[in-house]
Design goal:
The chain is an alpha/beta fold. The protein has six helices and nine strands.
């Protein structure tokens, strides 16, 4: 069984913690899909801004990590993904959210540790990415609508 993790870090406000709605939708979609649910296990759901190295250790055994990026977590998320890719070069890093500058032509040269970028709502695209990961003959990566692929620094 493959492991996937989802990351959407937030701050804690006093005793309040805001759980991440968008990555919750991704996890719910995978859980609802019998085929994906039989092949993938949610490893970690990271929603608190914690020590970077501690968080990298939590994520290091995941096969796929999806990062939901907003203005308040962008720099932290970039550094987290960079460190994770150094520790586990085989992990598939998938970025999405409104903060990702997906229109930058050189985005994968600027951020070589990002493997895929989902543009717009990610529920269907992320499920299709997992389908590709579990059986690439069923769905080629290039057939997934709404994603950018890092091909050795070039955007596809």
């Amino acid at each position: 069984m493959h492991k996937y993790s989802l990351v959407q870090v937030n701050f804690q406000y006093g005793d309040n913690v805001f759980l991440p709605y968008s990555v919750g939708l991704l996890a719910a979609g995978i859980k609802r899909d019998a085929n994906l649910n039989s092949k993938f296990q949610l490893d970690q759901l990271v929603y608190l801004r914690d020590d970077l190295q501690k968080t990298v250790e939590l994520l290091k055994n995941s096969d796929i990590v999806g990062f939901s990026c907003y203005i308040w977590n962008w720099e932290y998320t970039l550094e987290l993904a960079r460190r994770l890719k150094l520790l586990n070069p085989k992990v598939l890093t998938v970025f999405g959210g409104p903060q990702v500058p997906h229109s930058k032509v050189d985005i994968f040269k600027t951020f070589p540790f990002i493997d895929l970028i989902v543009i717009g709502e990610g529920e269907f695209a992320f499920s299709e990415i997992l389908t590709h990961f579990s059986d690439s003959s069923k769905l080629p990566l290039q057939a997934i609508k709404g994603i950018l692929i890092n091909n050795n620094g070039e955007r596809i």
